[in-house]
């Protein structure tokens, strides 16, 4: 069904469209946390080695991050609605394969496929929101609802992952995505209307896609080899050198092509580039904390999957409070750069506190304070990008 709408007029189905777009976002965010809780069980069942367990998370993140710019460009070519529906359909199929995985390779492949289709889905969803809501106030409200659902999805994923793993099987943490995807895809197909003139027919930057993806894969795999072979191993050094060469070539290509995948002005402008770099480092740290604590609670402390989900809830609560109260209030009164440095410093203190963990550490004494500090501080720093005093 190919329906278009004059972008100058409000879409009469815009609030219905928001429901299905937000449902897709809920599925993506839920998947990122629900799998964390189920990972120890999946590792035992499929015989995944300790060295490779991180790839269940990394395969998704790498495909998603490496192809996100390309996914946005595909949405420009195909149309946002088509890219959205294809992304949802592919995500559902990849989830079904992950749930039925018979071995490590099948599981990792499904996670990479989820990331790839998520990279197509995510920019299409945000773009659809922007063009569907033409009134500035309605658009702000729609993005607020979208963001709140994304934040709540993290809590839902933690709890649902624990419940499904505890009372059914870890495989259901993948199968749970399928009904979300089906409902969102059908709703999008019949409700969302593509704005007129919404496609950009400029050429694809294929060299940029290849170089950026290979460069990121080499970088991440280099860190993986460092964990198993050591930092001075020839294979580790070779991968880091390859990553540097590939990413440098990517930057060179992007500065020369007519329609770059990543315009260099996005990262070379000091304020914007600085924000992206600092947020990227913060997210890297958070990924490590989540993966480590999941295994620490279940393997070392002997928590059940559902108890592990509840253990993370204070961090989610602090995240919601930090996003909706602390960050919202401070960002309108304090310059962004004065918020970011203290915010990241407190997050570093939280991670330093978590380094005190040992076999007999108590949850209230060590883990709880670290999680609350992380949850309350990081969203405050993230919101500095969008406030009136923001540096970007």
Automatic annotation (TrEMBL):
Cellular localisation: Cell membrane
Keyword Lipid metabolism: no
Superkingdom per UniProt: Bacteria
Pfam families to which the protein is assigned, alphabetical: MFS_1 (PF07690)
GO biological-process terms attached to the record: response to antibiotic
Membrane topology: Multi-pass membrane protein
This protein's UniProt keywords: Antibiotic resistance, Cell membrane, Membrane, Transmembrane, Transmembrane helix, Transport
Annotated GO MF terms: transmembrane transporter activity
PROSITE patterns: MFS, SUGAR_TRANSPORT_1
Record flagged with keyword Phosphoprotein: no
InterPro entries for this protein: MFS (IPR011701), MFS_dom (IPR020846), MFS_trans_sf (IPR036259), Sugar_transporter_CS (IPR005829)
GO CC annotations on file: plasma membrane
Domain Major facilitator superfamily (MFS) profile: 17-392
CDD domains in UniProt: MFS_MMR_MDR_like
Name of the protein in its database record: Drug resistance transporter, EmrB/QacA subfamily
Species: Actinacidiphila alni
């Amino acid at each position: 069904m190919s329906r278009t709408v004059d972008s100058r007029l409000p879409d009469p189905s815009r609030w219905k469209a928001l429901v299905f777009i937000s449902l897709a976002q809920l599925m993506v965010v839920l998947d990122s946390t629900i799998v964390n809780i189920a990972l120890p069980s999946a590792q035992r069942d499929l015989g995944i080695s300790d060295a490779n367990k991180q790839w269940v998370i990394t395969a998704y993140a790498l495909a998603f991050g490496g192809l996100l710019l390309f996914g946005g460009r595909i949405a420009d070519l195909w149309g946002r609605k088509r890219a959205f529906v294809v992304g949802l359909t592919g995500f559902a199929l990849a989830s079904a394969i992950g749930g039925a995985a018979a071995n490590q390779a099948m599981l990792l492949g499904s996670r990479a496929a989820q990331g790839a289709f998520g990279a197509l889905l995510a920019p299409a969803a945000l773009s659809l929101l922007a063009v569907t809501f033409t009134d500035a106030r309605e658009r702000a409200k729609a993005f607020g609802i979208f963001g709140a659902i994304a934040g709540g999805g993290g809590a839902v994923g933690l709890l649902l992952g624990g419940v499904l793993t505890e009372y059914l099987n870890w495989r259901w943490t993948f199968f749970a995505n399928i009904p979300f995807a089906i409902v969102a895809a059908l709703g999008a197909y019949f409700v969302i209307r593509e704005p007129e003139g919404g496609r950009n027919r400029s050429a694809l930057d294929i060299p940029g896609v290849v170089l950026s993806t290979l460069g990121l894969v080499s970088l991440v795999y280099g860190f993986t080899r460092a964990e198993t072979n050591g930092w001075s191993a020839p294979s580790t050094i070779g991968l880091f050198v390859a990553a540097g060469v590939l990413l440098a070539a990517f930057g060179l290509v992007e500065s020369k092509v007519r329609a770059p995948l990543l315009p260099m002005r996005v990262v070379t402008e000091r304020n914007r580039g600085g924000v992206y770099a600092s947020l990227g480092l913060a997210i890297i740290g958070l990924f490590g904390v989540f993966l480590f604590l999941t295994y620490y609670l279940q393997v070392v402390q002997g928590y059940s999957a559902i108890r592990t989900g509840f253990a993370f809830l204070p961090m989610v609560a602090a995240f919601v409070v930090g996003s909706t109260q602390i960050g919202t209030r401070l960002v309108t009164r304090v310059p962004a750069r004065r918020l970011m440095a203290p915010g990241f410093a407190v997050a570093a203190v939280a991670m330093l506190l978590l380094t005190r963990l040992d076999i007999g550490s108590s949850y209230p004494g060590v883990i709880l304070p670290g999680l609350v500090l992380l949850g309350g501080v990081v969203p405050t720093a993230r919101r500095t990008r969008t406030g009136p005093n923001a540096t970007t």
